[in-house]
Specification:
The complex is a heterodimer. By secondary structure, chain A is α+β, with helices and mostly antiparallel strands. Chain A is 45% helix and 23% strand. Chain A is built from 16 helices and 17 strands. In chain A, strand 8 and strand 9 form a beta hairpin. Chain A is elongated. By secondary structure, chain B is of the alpha/beta class. Chain B is 39% helix and 16% strand. Chain B has a five-stranded parallel beta sheet, with helices on both faces. Classes of the chains: A alpha+beta, B alpha/beta. Chains A and B meet through helix 10, helix 11 and helix 12 of A and helix 1 and helix 5 of B.
Chain lengths: 547, 147
């Protein structure tokens, strides 16, 4: 082996072997040692890991630039000081153990620990420590390699925290909301306990199904088409859905469906978060009922106020005015009495007050008082209408008409009236109030009959657009087209002198029907007859519910 | 007075009509006074059966019009009169028991010349009608020609 051999090409093991086995000269050994020293120095200089050597007792003997960067000490500050300087108090036992293992010739494989920087802050490091032996195999020290893993450690901690937070958020969500996850095809892949509770299905019954399992058929196909269109485009859908539980009960949920998208923006699954709003929906419906009741009451009140402001004042003007005339007539009689000579009353002067003024005044005062009483009674009757509780039920209208005609038989016979009742469809209404409406219509036909011909009344009915429509047609005097709109006005009377009544019958009929979701209107020709048309909700068909 | 208009009282309440007539006379009016029982009656006085053409009229008229009446109410009568090119010249004074502000508003929109509430208290009623009578005495009313 030539002496000029380039030892740098040899591996460390080869070098040691060569040295052990050959009878090389002392100079060769020195060169090899120097070469190894240089190699180590070069590695230590450029390493980003801290490379630190120490004596078996733990005193630092070398310190590379990376060590300075990681721990903050310059080489000249730290060489000669014990390694324990870098160990935080909480881990004080670590270093003696490491030294003991090194003394036994063991390597200490990578482990993570904390060390203290010069400025007192902690640094997370990954450590590996190997014993250093002299050529004779004696342990002369140890080499520590330390890598700063603070950044990784922090990232790991953040990940842990994020995962924990995610877990908590999900727990909170599950605690508050009804949650389901479906895959892109709409199959349920996850449901939380609340979903099972409200839908009354077991988890196993739901997983793998689609949401049709809870469809109540309250919403249109278009509704769900739009829903799927929205989330299929990757957009969030929000709305209120009515669902059906396993036992058939219906519930409302406020729903947000959030699509999870892949890198290409295509939905891969949908998370549906729902809140039970069944109660709120019921409250809303209740509120709407209250509002319409209130509107009805208000209308009633306005009518009453208007009536009081006009109709009740009119007779009062007469009572006051003719009362004054009565007073004046009294005055003139008194004057005549005072001026009477020898107890003989002057007939001529008494004639006007006694025969004309006083009877006329009394007539108007009495009429006024009667009218006021009639109006007050009518107002009371009208205002009580709104307070009568309705019992809506299917009505047999032929039976109802039969009862009315039986009750009015005397008046009808007296007028030689002929009433013809066709086959009438049933309807939904309150039997007492509906009876009143039709009794009033028959009574009107009697009142407004044409004296020149016998009264004919025809009652017929049909079903039209879910409404039962009835016609009460007479051959009476009829109503001129321009007067027809007014016949339903409160206290309005077309011929106040011809018939008795306070002008409330049709007003009440209209109010009664409105409360039962019905309507009334009139078709008439003057001199020919009138047809009053009443519509009420038809009895719904008993068709099975859509599935 | 040559130009004194005939006064047409349109009121469904006979008592009111009598009281109005008496008080107008007490104010010194000697005009011809006529009473109509409802809105249809006064329309029949002014219009032909077609409801559009004015009937031949002579002299001048002043209408005292109540609102709530059977068949055709006062606001409708007012609307029909004021919608006619010639009859709209007729002075129409609403004379009614209600003081409902919406009613007052509506009548003025339809073109009534005055709106007077009939007071319930008779002294005030008499005073109001007599003042109205004095006012009428001062009016110069244009004659209306038929179509």
């Amino acid at each position: 082996m030539p002496i000029e051999e380039d030892y740098s090409l040899l591996t460390n093991e080869e070098l040691v072997m060569r040295l052990k086995n050959s009878a090389a000269k002392r100079t060769v050994l020195d060169e090899v040692a120097a070469e190894a020293q240089m190699r180590f120095a070069a590695i230590a200089e450029s390493s980003t890991d801290a490379i630190i050597t120490k004596t078996p007792a733990g005193v630092i003997t070398s310190w590379n630039p990376a060590a300075e960067k990681i721990f903050g000490y310059r080489a000249d500050e730290i060489i000669g000081r014990p390694m324990q300087v870098l160990v935080p108090a909480a881990r004080a036992a670590e270093e003696p153990e490491v030294l003991a293992r090194i003394a036994r010739g063991e390597r200490v494989e990578h482990f993570e620990s904390e060390r203290v920087r010069k400025d007192g802050t902690l640094v997370y490091v990954s450590l590996a420590i190997s014993p250093i032996r002299d050529p004779g195999g004696r342990i002369v020290g140890a080499a520590s390699i330390a890598r700063d893993v603070t950044a990784q450690k922090k990232a790991g901690q953040e990940l842990q925290a994020a995962l924990r937070e995610l877990h908590d958020v999900r727990a909170a969500l599950d605690e508050h909301s009804i949650v389901a996850i479906t895959n892109a095809a709409g199959r349920i892949t996850y449901v939380n306990d609340k979903f099972c509770a409200i839908s009354k299905y077991a988890r196993e019954e739901l997983i793998g199904q689609d949401h049709r399992i809870i469809n109540s058929h309250h919403h249109s196909k278009e509704f769900f088409r739009q829903l799927w269109g929205t989330i299929g485009r990757g957009q969030v859908w929000h709305g209120e859905i009515r669902n059906r539980a396993k036992d058939g009960t219906l519930y409302w949920v406020d729903t947000t469906i959030f699509p999870f998208l892949d890198a290409a923006g295509k939905p891969v699954q949908y998370v549906a978060i729902r809140t039970d709003i069944t109660r709120r929906k019921a409250d809303e419906a209740e509120l709407q009922r209250f509002a319409s009741d209130l509107a009805e009451k208000n209308k009633e009140l306005e009518t009453i106020v208007y009536t009081v402001s006009h109709d009740l004042r009119s007779p009062l003007v007469n009572v006051q005015g003719f009362g004054k005339q009565l007073g004046r007539a009294c005055e003139s009689i008194r004057a005549a009495m005072q001026g009477a000579v020898g107890g003989v009353l002057p007939t001529l002067e008494l004639k006007q007050p006694v025969e004309v003024t006083i009877p006329q005044a009394l007539r108007f005062i009495n009429a006024g008082v009667n009218k006021m009483e009639l109006l007050l009674a009518g107002l009371l009757r009208y205002s009580r209408l709104g307070r009568v509780a309705l019992a809506i039920a299917p009505l047999d209208m032929n039976r109802l008409l039969g009862e009315i005609l039986a009750a009015m038989k005397f008046q009808l016979d007296e007028a030689r009236a002929e009433v013809e009742v066709g086959a009438l469809p049933g309807c939904l209404g309150d039997s007492v109030q509906t009876n009143q409406v039709f009794a009033n219509l028959i009574d009107n036909a009697l009142k407004y009959r044409d004296p020149n011909r016998p009264l004919r009344v025809k009652v017929s009915g049909r079903i039209e657009d879910g409404q039962a429509v009835y016609q009460v047609a007479d051959n009476g005097i009829g109503i001129a087209a321009e007067h027809q709109a007014k016949v339903f006005d409160i206290f309005h009377r077309l011929n106040p002198d011809a018939t008795v009544g306070e002008g409330l019958g049709l007003t009440i009929a209209q109010r009664v029907l409105e409360r039962q979701k019905g309507r009334i209107w009139v078709e008439s020709q003057e001199g020919v007859g009138s047809t009053f048309v009443v519509s009420l909700p038809a009895v719904p068909d008993r068709t099975p519910l859509p599935s | 007075m040559k130009n004194a208009p005939a006064i047409l009282i349109v009121d469904d309440d006979e008592g009111h009509a009598i009281l109005i007539r008496q008080n107008l006379e007490m104010a010194g009016l000697t005009n011809r006074i006529e009473h109509f029982r409802d809105g249809q009656a006064i329309l029949d006085f002014f219009f032909e059966r077609d409801g559009k053409t004015a009937r031949p009229l002579q002299g001048t008229y002043l209408v005292l019009l109540d609102i709530r009446m059977p068949k055709v109410d006062g606001t409708e009568v007012l609307r029909r009169i004021k919608a006619h090119p010639e009859l709209k010249k007729l002075p129409v004074i609403m004379l009614t028991t209600t003081d409902d502000s919406r009613e007052v508003e509506r009548c003025h929109q339809l073109g009534c010349n005055e709106y007077i509430q009939k007071p319930v208290d008779y002294d005030r009623f008499a005073e109001a009608i007599q003042r109205l009578g004095l006012f009428v005495l001062l009016l110069l009313v244009p004659p209306v020609k038929s179509d």
